[in-house]
């Protein structure tokens, strides 16, 4: 579980397929800003408004994520969505369709920031596609309050992995285990995302979905803070080979994981 940090650094254009941004759509923008501002130390400034009110979250002046407001009449799932880099979002969107996925929004221009689309894979998991212009993507990584990893939770890995490999050109590295269905997606020899097949372990109300991990300094302390701020713990903190990990939900129900990397 290592964020794909390219050798050229965060201010370089991302290699196609690399998770480059995460965005959250909510009903209460102001209260959501308060939650994440307290939890991660984020500050906010306005971003492109093509899909309605939208802000970019900043940490120490660096853009790390986006939060937008859903229209009042849209009862869509509130969820963090990773955006995968593309050199040509229109071509990538067409590949999504050809490979059995769905394009729900776009492609469309996000002001001067870039061009984007929102799509879903054949199993229904939603992800974004980002063709960078002024906004290359998350400009800071490896410190508390920044995205650390993105993982697809789905029924099984085999068929959906083929979809992502065909659309984005990933190489795969399966975990060889009789009872653990997991594939790590690689670009240029670097791990960039994971696919975890959990079968009937998927939440009935969500189905297949992408899960974003955020780096934190103290996983247990973060869980206490989440509860104090009106969120809830979905999966308590536990130790893993990647550090201490937990899964939580914000006050509107958006689920995300936190990871305290080994020191």
From TrEMBL:
Residues 18-132, 146-261 form the VOC domain. It comes from the Bacteria. PROSITE patterns: VOC. This is Bleomycin resistance protein. CDD domains: SgaA_N_like. It comes from Streptomyces diastatochromogenes.
